[in-house]
Design brief:
It is built from 43 helices and four strands. The protein is an all-alpha fold.
């Protein structure tokens, strides 16, 4: 079946190339770029035709879409270089590579986006190649790579971009190369590396678990970094705190004194707040427990910040000594209320405590401000307790607190946590400006969109979801993988493949393997849904195949099996063929894959595809011929009326090292159903089974009865049923009679079964008669009687 999807849409995904939108702008020297982590405003999009995911009814544009995303610029020549080095072929020209390298960073200065492991490998391969040719480069090409401007851009992009785990080590090396190049003497004296570049490099080192080198850089360039704010020493201390290295923390504080600086209360508070902002609780513990002061103690504000953070992280026990040393004053009343809430006090108990405090000291009344409510709401949301948040909001009215925008945002977060879609949307409409949501709380927006996409009323809320996404797309915000997975499910439910393509293409490359698996599952769940049409399922499979080329054998095997269930052998074998053609050995069919494919073919008797798959098996030197595979071949050839071939396969099983299993014997009896001498072979095999004292379970005995029935051996089959309890210790059941009835051919013999069963097994027959009996393949059969032979 031909897919309706355009392969061009996912061209870059085939090689796991970078996928993220970024804005193109004129770029400046790093010296003029604002400090790290400060984003520049995006250009106005009012006069630009917007590519909106959900504006599906907009008139189609006549302009051709670009085949390369902004984040992909420069990668094609670098990819060609990597391939040429592997193939030992001629690499692209140096001027092309230098321009590509410069373009990659120039494009990302404004919107660094995400740097994947694939991109990082291309960058370092290209750098090393051009570094080896540095003395031979033309002036323009040298400037594109090794100029101060480009080297500083590299450091800025590395510090601002989100680096996936498999790219961090490579980017750390690239950053070091750029730093060393900025410090090198090219014959005109060493470059005067700028203060912003040094600051970025120090922060990069500390963020990548290399605080020792960062300290050395700070010491070396201290004269230049002395006036930097915040002090680079804080970054070094932060790095050691994250590593929980108290010895090095003490050493750095001592070094500060040698450089004429004091680590005072203000510095300590700034360091603690940095760690809290980055959600590094272990590091906060390390810093707080480290005796880095001579006679100073943490400031009151530091103590309050640490206690609140510990409460929000459910680390109350650790914070107990700090709380006990905290003075109980109106300035610390919100900490006391938080402390009581963390110990189980509800809104009523908190009100009673506050009333008692006010009765003793009226100053406490002035201490109850909107921020107090916000602190308590933060705790309710941190512990995902929407009920407490609702009670606190009601309590605020009794306290006379007027909620702020921050209060509304926290109340809104609690509603999202509750999962009440209608109440959440009502609050959003009345109290929240949706356009401010991304700036206020991006994780909350992701959770909200996910909730709406997964709700039963998602179609009715389609426009609402669209309005929430619009500012996120305009700002090129990176959506969480769970959100993209939910959006994908919703769009698949709407059967809008183009929209799925538009959603996934610029984002898949920004996720690691675990995140991508969440999005992929949305596609595979749709494909495995038997209620969807064959055409729709195949279109989504084609999308999956191109968007997720790394999809493993197990998932593809599930898809193949589901297509066999649909009676679409043609598509199932195509999926099998795609696995067989995979370049990666890990993605090629395993013995289990062959066995399940042959079992699927056996269900429909597909002779042409049986021959195709068997030929593939013969040519596949990586697959060992297991008993499961041979069982599948037996069933498949029997289903195609080639019973002699099935018997040959059975003899091959008997001679194999692994030998036959119980399932092999079941398959043998299934072959006997169609074999010209099947009744004789079945009875002979049962005699051997008894002599060898092989355990006979219900499925095996049922297969024996069916073999006799299919060969018109009415008397032999009924005798076997009568002797069932004696032979295997289990009495005949409804399914026993049903399988006997379904297996025996012709209406005459079926009537004989009915007459016999009504007299001999009336109870089982009565239960069987409750099932529908329909004509299938020209014969009457009971539905709901399972005859699914597993290999």
């Amino acid at each position: 079946m031909q897919s309706h999807l355009s392969r061009r849409v996912f061209r870059a995904l085939i090689n796991n190339e970078p996928l993220s939108f970024s804005a193109c702008r004129r770029h400046r020297l790093l010296h003029t770029i604002p400090p790290a982590r400060v984003r520049l405003s995006l250009p106005s999009l009012q006069d630009v035709t917007r590519r909106s995911l959900f504006a599906f009814n907009a008139a189609p544009t006549t302009e051709a879409r670009p085949t390369t995303l902004p984040s992909e610029r420069g990668l094609k020549p670098m990819t060609d270089l990597s391939k040429s080095l592997i193939d030992k072929a001629r690499p692209p020209p140096s001027e092309v590579l230098a321009k590509a390298f410069q373009t990659f960073f120039a494009t990302r200065v404004e919107t660094p986006g995400v740097i994947t492991g694939y991109q990082a490998k291309l960058l370092i391969v290209t750098w090393k190649h051009l570094k080896g040719l540095q003395s031979e480069l033309e002036e323009r090409d040298w400037q594109n790579v090794f100029s101060t401007e480009n080297l500083e851009k590299m450091l800025f992009v590395f510090s601002e971009a989100q680096c996936l785990p498999n790219s961090r080590a490579i980017l750390q090396n690239l950053a070091r190369y750029a730093y060393l190049e900025l410090c090198v003497d090219h014959g005109f004296g060493p470059n005067e590396i700028s203060r912003p570049a040094l600051t970025l490099y120090v922060n990069l080192l500390c963020a990548n678990d290399n605080s020792e080198e960062a300290r050395a850089v700070v010491v070396k360039f201290w004269d230049r970094l002395r006036k930097t704010r915040p002090s680079p020493w804080l970054a070094v201390l932060k790095g050691f705190a994250i590593k929980e290295d108290k010895r090095q923390l003490k050493r750095v504080v001592d070094e500060l004194k040698e450089h004429g600086m004091n680590f005072d209360q203000a510095s300590y508070e700034e360091l603690v707040q940095m760690l809290i902002d980055q959600d590094q609780f272990k590091a906060v513990q390390t810093v707080y427990e480290c005796p880095i002061f001579d006679s100073l103690k943490p400031s009151l504000s530091t103590m309050k910040a640490v206690i609140k953070y510990a409460i929000l992280k459910s680390k109350v026990e650790w914070a107990s000594p700090i709380f006990e040393s905290l003075p109980q004053t109106p300035d610390t009343v919100y900490i006391s209320l938080l402390w009581d809430a963390a110990h189980g006090s509800g809104a009523v108990a908190l009100k009673e405590k506050l009333d008692s405090l006010i009765a003793k000291d009226p100053r406490y009344k002035k201490a109850i401000v909107p921020a107090t409510l916000n602190h308590l709401l933060e705790y309710a949301n941190a512990t995902e307790n929407p009920q407490l948040a609702a009670e606190l909001s009601q309590l605020a009215e009794k306290w006379g607190i007027a909620p702020t925008e921050r209060s509304h945002m926290l109340q809104f977060e609690s509603l999202v946590q509750s999962g009440d879609v209608e109440q959440t949307l009502q609050f959003l409409q009345e109290r929240i400006d949706p356009s401010t949501l991304p700036q206020e709380n991006l994780p909350l927006v992701n959770r909200l969109i996910t909730m709406l996409c997964l709700s039963e009323k998602r179609d009715a809320m389609f426009q609402q979801i669209s309005s929430l996404l619009d500012p996120l797309f305009q700002e090129n915000v990176r959506l969480e993988a769970d959100t993209v997975a939910a959006l994908t499910r919703m769009l698949l439910h709407r059967h809008d493949w183009d929209a799925v393509s538009e959603l996934l293409r610029p984002r898949l490359g920004t996720y690691d393997s675990e995140e991508k698996s969440k999005v992929r599952k949305a596609l595979t769940d749709f494909i495995l849904d038997l209620s969807q049409s064959d055409t729709d399922v195949w279109d989504v499979y084609e999308l999956l195949k191109v968007a997720f080329p790394e999809t493993g054998v197990s998932v593809r095997t599930e898809i193949m099996t589901s297509l066999f269930k649909r009676k679409r052998n043609d598509l199932a074998v195509l999926v099998f063929g795609h696995m067989r053609q995979a370049e990666n050995l890990l993605q090629r069919p395993k013995p289990d894959t062959y066995a399940r494919c042959l079992q699927g073919i056996a269900q429909t008797g597909d002779e042409s595809n049986l021959e195709l798959v068997h030929n593939m098996l013969r040519l596949d030197l990586e697959v060992v011929m297991t008993t499961r595979i041979l069982n599948g071949l037996m069933l498949a050839y029997a289903a195609c009326d080639q019973t002699e071939t099935s018997m040959e396969v059975f003899r091959e099983v008997l001679q194999s090292e692994e030998g036959p299993s119980n399932k092999t014997l079941v398959c043998f009896f299934k072959v006997c159903e169609k074999h010209r001498n099947g009744a004789h072979e079945a009875m002979k095999m049962m005699d051997k089974i008894k002599k060898l004292e092989i355990t006979v379970d219900r499925p095996l005995y049922h297969a024996y009865i069916q073999a006799l029935a299919a060969q018109y051996e009415f008397d032999q089959a009924t005798e076997a049923i009568d002797r069932m309890e004696e032979e295997i210790g289990q009495v005949p059941m409804r399914d026993t009679i049903g399988l006997f009835y379904n297996a025996i051919p012709f209406d005459y013999w079926k009537d004989q079964v009915v007459e016999w069963a009504q007299k001999k097994y009336p109870e089982q027959w009565a239960r069987l008669a409750e099932l529908p009996c329909t004509e299938q393949e020209g014969e009457m059969r009971f539905e709901g009687i399972v005859d699914d032979v597993r290999v």
